[in-house]
Amino acid sequence: MRYRSTRDVDSAQKLTFEQALFEGLAPDGGLYIPEAIPQVPLSKILSWANLSYSELALEIFRLYIDESEISVSDLADIVERSYATFTHKDITPLVKLPNVASEEENARSHHNLENLYVLELFHGPTCAFKDVALQFVGNAFEYFLKRRNQNKASPSDRDHRITVVGATSGDTGGAAIYGLRGKENVSVFILHPKGRISPVQEQQMTSVLDDNVFNIAVEGSFDDCQDIVKALFSDLDFKKRFQLGAVNSINWARIMAQITYYFYSYFALLKAKGVPLDTASYAVLTKIRFSVPTGNFGDILAGYFALRMGLPIDRLIIATNENDILHRFLETGSYTKPTTTCPVSGDLVRATLSPAMDILISSNFERLLWYLANGDGRTPAESPDAQAASEAIREWMSTLKSTGGFSVPETVLERARQVFDSVCVSNADTTDAIKRYYHHQYSQALDQDQLSNPTLPAGARSSYVLDPHTAVGVVAAERILLSDASIGSAAAVNVVCLSTASPGKFPEAVLTAINESVPTESTQLGFVPVEYRDIAPQVLVDLEGLPKRCIFVETEGGNKAVGEKAIRHILEEKVGAGFV
Ligand SMILES: *Cc1c(COP(=O)(O)O)cnc(C)c1O
Question: Of 185, 273, 483, 577, which sits most exposed with the smallest number of CB within 10 A?
Fold first, then answer.
């Protein structure tokens, strides 16, 4: 398998998986896509149904990484180690949500909310979904560097190394640090805006004391951090000298790693429903849709690849918060940055309760656009329209840059609508969902036995604590299940909502939703306010009081040039000696 840039799929530039992993972004500004999407027949897919998570990941990754690059046994070892850090035996368990619909809603919708599930993607080290990909990416970097060093011309040559530099507003930095900590020949420098990330995220990142991890708190905003990182990457001499690398969400390896859980949850759902796993039963398989809380379009793009590989996904739901560029695109065919500033952030980006989805544009959307522009899109290598699609991408992206938006032809929009729905969810509806799913256990209709039994088996839960990102996905799914006229009683439609973070990671929003404006019923039935330790996994609770290490960079009141100079100095001092 080779990889090509969305902006020039015809170019002679074809990268191996290893090259695509280390390069991240293509030099022409495009994103790497595989030259063909592997097609997996249904019989083959169903033969994977009883594999463990790691075994399944191995099957899928093998389709995207040639054996000449990583042998099967080496890949199996990398995959195994990547998921050994997860605390749940299923890695990404599927949990049935309680049906919180009113009697009237249930009657009208044929009890559709009985078919609502969450896929918990937060059992990795940082309690958010980015771990699923970044645990693998860290091991893959280490693997390739080790091999490059073995193949060095002479033992006196310098080691091949990589210096990962990134800016974070919270989740990405943490997942990168936990993915790269302690990896040989890898150093990681993560900039965050001092005092402007959540206390949990700050604790999580700065309490990692490995020698190769450097947290840098910059006086300024997230954008200042981002600008400093961009400045370093655009200094090509500096970039080359330090072998700068990025692990942001446009990295192909991250998308690939996320494909696994779509397959895995598909099987988990069929098993939960008692559907026999053979092709003969396929005709009666229930329909499965995924609802994905979306920011940079990386998570849901993996679902699109799963679908194009042959997994019988019915539809994909793009769930956005008030940063709704993707929702507006699906409505109008126009992909346009907002023009008015947010009263809270004072910026074009809205400050919402789901901050990991607070984006202006979705960096991975370009990949989907290429497939939409190319029509059948399966084979950049062979399709006669492939280069025309790249031309369209170049034109759209340059219009986006110069005017802040572009529109696609009706045919392209139609292709998007054949696969995707979109729903935009407000802050108020996010809070309301967290409240409803928690307080459901106190609804009068529930059996009192359930209340006194807090350890109900999965599938029989009477309440569920949603994090605000997951809540966005759940509200989107509810809207579709309760209103889409095409969902009748005959063909049950199941929706799996991707749960991207543990509620303990965003406790302010969760505790406010649960503890304020408490429903009267709950109070009557003995509700006691919920505390942080009730909703946080042990790893997060244990962070408190751990020693921390962080370098503070002053910018003399927001002067980025001063900040950049200081960061260069830090890199030089900490790892400069390792490079020529
Ligand atoms: C990163 C993130 C998202 C958004 O994922 P994309 O791949 O950028 O769409 C959603 N929720 C959480 C908690 C995240 O960390």
Answer: 577
Q: What count of other Cβ atoms lies within 10 Å of the Cβ of residue 384?
A: 9
Looking up tokens 């655009």, which residue turns up? 234
Could you give the CA distance from residue 181 to residue 89 in angstroms, rounded to a whole number?
A: 23
**pLDDT over 50 (residue 458):** no
For 387, list phi and psi in degrees, rounded to 5.
-70, -30
pLDDT of 375 reads 77
In the predicted model, what is the mean pLDDT of residues 348-361?
91
Q: What is the pLDDT of residue 345?
A: 78
The model's pLDDT over 33-86, given as tens digits with 9 standing for 90+, comes to 999 999 999 889 999 999 999 999 999 999 999 999 999 999 999 999 999 999
For ligand 1, say whether the CB of 321 is within 6 Å of any of its atoms: no
| Residue 501 near ligand 1, beta carbon < 6 Å | yes
Quick: pLDDT tens for 139-167. 999 999 999 999 887 777 778 999 999 99
Evaluate whether 205 touches 170 at the Cβ level (below 8 Å).
Answer: no
Does ligand 1 come within 6 angstroms of the Cβ of 359? no
DSSP codes, 60-95: HHHHHS-TTTS-HHHHHHHHHHHHTT-SSTTSS-EE
User: H/E element holding 435?
Assistant: helix 427-439
Q: Does this model's pTM top 0.90?
A: yes
Catalytic residue among 44, 89, 96, 130: 130
Residue whose CA is closest, atom 7 of ligand 1? 298
Query: Residue 470: helix, strand or coil by DSSP?
Result: helix
Q: Is the CB of 356 under 6 A from ligand 1?
A: yes
Q: Among residues 37, 29, 82, 33, which one has the least CA distance to residue 55?
A: 82
Residue 560 annotated among the catalytic residues of the structure:
no
Distances (CA, A) of 195 to 74, 170, 215, 412, 547: 42, 11, 13, 43, 18
Distances (CA, A) of 389 to 297, 300, 371, 444, 526: 19, 21, 8, 57, 60
- 13 falls in which pLDDT band (50, 70, 90)? confident
Residue 524 C-alpha from the chain's centroid = 40
Q: What is the mean pLDDT of the chain?
A: 91
As beta bridge partners, residue 552 has 217
Three-state secondary-structure class, residue 123? coil
- Helices 427-439 and 468-483 pack at an angle, to 10 degrees, of 90
For ligand 1, pick from 500, 505, 510 the residue to mutate: most ligand atoms within 8 Å of CB.
500
- Find the 293 Cα to ligand 1 centroid distance in Å: 7
pLDDT for 104: 87
Q: Exposure string (b/e) for 206-228, b if CB count within 10 Å is 16 or more? A: bbbeeebbbbbbbbbbbebbbbb
Q: Tell me the β-bridge partners of 188.
A: 164, 213
Nearest CA to ligand 1 atom 1: 356
Higher pLDDT, 492 or 456: 492
